[in-house]
């Protein structure tokens, strides 16, 4: 583990810096990436700072990536934000630079990088970037930087609702408000869904299998998405919805990919689910993880494992 001072000393040494984050980026991936890029550009205008990766259609309003060539990687510093493991980095040339830094808030299962800073107590990677800026005399938390970081924190805390939200998270959020960031506009944008996505919520409640233990799951397959006219990325907007039900404490959503496999989204309000995710080619936070199921049989197998896990948790009376 390295200190912020060591990371900033490294940043100062490089003229070209490429900032990456994970595939299928969420607001925290994009917010931490763009927030860091913006503060570095503002502090060091002579450095070339590039934002890499593929765009997510529904989040282009927040940040879009730039073209990064093979030549750009030569001799560059590469910084990866919000990405626990190397296979999920959205640009597998990440190791082609001269030096690699990991900055993240997920469990540090894959401690990659020449330098790394991981804080699993942080609500989001965006909160860590705010702390990095605060630790330095040279980096500034400007209104533009705060815009990206606010979106990232809102995304990963469910608008300051999840247990990962700490006093410090609120203090950092307060600094953003003091800078005049239009928080209501960001919240509205992040809350926005299409009519088709709203219809999906209804179908989801109809299809949700709820076990007496409080474990639940729903499958959103290709046929359903086609019928509703939504894509996989839009289907992700309903992942947190079952958590509002009194009957549900831990749940999974299986969203089918074009190749027939399922991207699994796991969420919990108590039982720790990242071990289960790890057993199915995934990982993540104790209460919010992702995994992959090759077919429906594996989805159902995962639900059996989820039910066991929740039942055990209930028996312990935690
Ligand atoms: P998601 O359900 O895709 O919103 O992901 C929930 C959390 O789990 C996020 O913090 C992701 O970064 C993490 N995550 C999702 N998929 C994976 C994976 N395959 N491996 C490791 N972490 C993952």
Automatic annotation (TrEMBL):
Molecular function as annotated in GO: nucleic acid binding
DDH domain span: 16-153
Organism, as annotated: Companilactobacillus zhachilii
Pfam families: DHH, DHHA1
Protein name, entry field: Bifunctional oligoribonuclease/PAP phosphatase NrnA
Lineage: Bacteria, Bacillati, Bacillota, Bacilli, Lactobacillales
SUPFAM superfamilies cross-referenced by the UniProt entry: DHH phosphoesterases (SSF64182)
Domain called DHHA1: residue spans: 222-311
Source organism, top-level taxon: Bacteria
């Amino acid at each position: 583990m390295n200190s912020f001072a060591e990371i900033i000393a490294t940043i100062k040494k490089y003229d070209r810096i490429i900032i990456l984050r994970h595939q299928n980026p969420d607001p925290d991936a994009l917010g931490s990436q763009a927030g860091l890029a913006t503060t570095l550009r503002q502090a060091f205008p002579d450095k070339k700072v590039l934002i890499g990766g593929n765009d997510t259609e529904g989040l282009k309003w927040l940040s879009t990536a730039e073209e990064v060539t093979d030549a750009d990687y030569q001799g560059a510093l590469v910084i990866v934000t919000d990405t626990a493991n190397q296979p999920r980095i959205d640009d597998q040339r990440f190791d082609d630079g001269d030096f690699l830094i990991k900055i993240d808030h997920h469990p540090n299962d894959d401690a990659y990088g020449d330098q790394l800073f991981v804080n699993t107590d942080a609500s989001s990677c965006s909160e860590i970037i705010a702390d990095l800026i605060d630790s330095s005399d040279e980096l500034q938390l400007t209104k533009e930087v705060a815009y990206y970081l606010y979106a990232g924190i809102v995304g990963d805390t469910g608008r300051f609702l999840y247990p990962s939200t700490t006093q410090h998270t609120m203090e950092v959020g307060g600094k953003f408000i003091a800078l005049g960031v239009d928080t209501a506009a960001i919240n509205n944008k992040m809350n926005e869904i299409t009519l088709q996505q709203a219809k999906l919520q209804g179908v989801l409640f109809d299809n949700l299998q709820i076990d007496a233990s409080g474990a639940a799951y729903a499958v959103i397959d290709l046929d359903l998405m086609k019928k509703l006219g939504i894509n996989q990325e839009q289907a992700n907007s309903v992942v947190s919805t079952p958590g509002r039900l009194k009957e549900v404490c831990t749940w999974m959503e299986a969203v089918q990919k074009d190749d027939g496999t399922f991207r699994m989204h796991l969420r919990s309000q108590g039982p720790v689910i990242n071990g289960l995710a790890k057993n199915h080619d995934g990982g993540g936070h104790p209460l919010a993880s992702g995994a992959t199921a090759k077919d429906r049989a594996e989805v159902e197998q995962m639900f059996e494992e989820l039910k066991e896990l929740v039942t055990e948790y209930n028996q312990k009376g935690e």
